Amino acid sequence: MSKIEKIVNSKSISLYWRCQIIGWGTVSIYWAYIVFARDHYGYFLTFLNYIFDILIGITLTHGYRFIALKLQWNSLSLPQLFRKILPSIILLAVLYMLVVNIKWHLFWQFIGGKEINFWNSLTYWDPVLLTGLRLMSIWILAYHLYHYYQNKIEATQQNAKLLVIAKQAQLDNLSAQLNPHFLFNSLNSIKSLVIENPETARRAIDLLSDLLRSSLYEKDKGLIAIKDELALVKDYIELEKMRFEERLQLQVTVDKTLESFKIPTLSIQLLVENAIKHGIDSKIEGGIVSITIKKDEDFVSIQVLNPGRLFLNNTNKGLGLKNLQERLKIQYKGNASIVLVELNQNVVEAKIRIPFIDNEEI
């Protein structure tokens, strides 16, 4: 059984092979007709020539596809790609001419019984070379246009998926900010301050307003500078300290050169919220939420530490963390990560690692 027959008989033939077989099979019908009608080939020789023409076309173009995939030409920009495919078309056309001429020489030499000079057969270029240029141009352009179109669709789908996840994360974050427990404690604290300390009460109202506003609108930005994200976190901590007082402490260590580096909006705040909810709130004595942001080789490392335990029933990430993980996966094409581990019996670490990109074009 030939390679083509095996491909045809396979249960799950790919679109690529369907196009290859149907395309070259259709084109080769014309030449089969020519040799049958003009050169008076018999049925067997016509069919044999037809199979050879299909194999020549598939072999050359499949070899090109193998090289293009290996060198990742489909990821190049259009100007870069055209600089690659133009010489490739010429090379493939020359190879096509040589192989077809060798085929014809063998046919006439061994089947037709004619003595023909091999060099003359090999260098016969008109119209074989022109046919090769035409066919290879059509095939290569169609191949890359299809993949260019597919890449555009994939990018559009990923952007749409990222937007949906970001919106869902926005709703999750808003829900966290607006949950009855949070609002009840915040408003109670503000209520007690209205008479005792009106200035602090006004400050608390401003903080609560800013947090709710950031939950509603900051997500639309997608990315935010680290210094701006930390400003939101500090506002959140300041508001929560009205409830926890000295039980809640914040330590921030950040590489100053990374302050303008952009990260997914509200990602650090989500880690801090979890640290307070699952760590500080469960400790009578409270504790310190520590944020460390630094360069780690080719990555930006964002570490949040809090006292507490990572119990077995809490090892599965919550909805907010799962959404953040998915956002990181899409935004950075699988090169970013978020990990939640227990360093010892008293400290839980949440760490985000994001590829460091100087121009921040993600």
UniProtKB/TrEMBL annotation:
Keywords: Kinase, Membrane, Transferase, Transmembrane, Transmembrane helix
InterPro entries: Bact_2-comp_sensor_kinase (IPR050640), HATPase_C_sf (IPR036890), Sig_transdc_His_kin_internal (IPR010559)
MF terms in GO: phosphorelay sensor kinase activity
Chain ranges passing through the membrane: 21-37, 43-64, 85-104, 124-146
One Pfam short name: His_kinase
Domain Signal transduction histidine kinase internal region residues, every copy: 169-248
Cellular component GO terms held in the UniProt record: membrane
Stored Gene3D superfamilies: Histidine kinase-like ATPase, C-terminal domain
Entry keyword RNA-binding: no
SUPFAM superfamilies in the cross-refs: ATPase domain of HSP90 chaperone/DNA topoisomerase II/histidine kinase
Keyword Repeat: no
PANTHER family: SENSOR HISTIDINE KINASE YPDA (PTHR34220)
Full protein name: Histidine kinase
Source organism (scientific name): Lutibacter maritimus
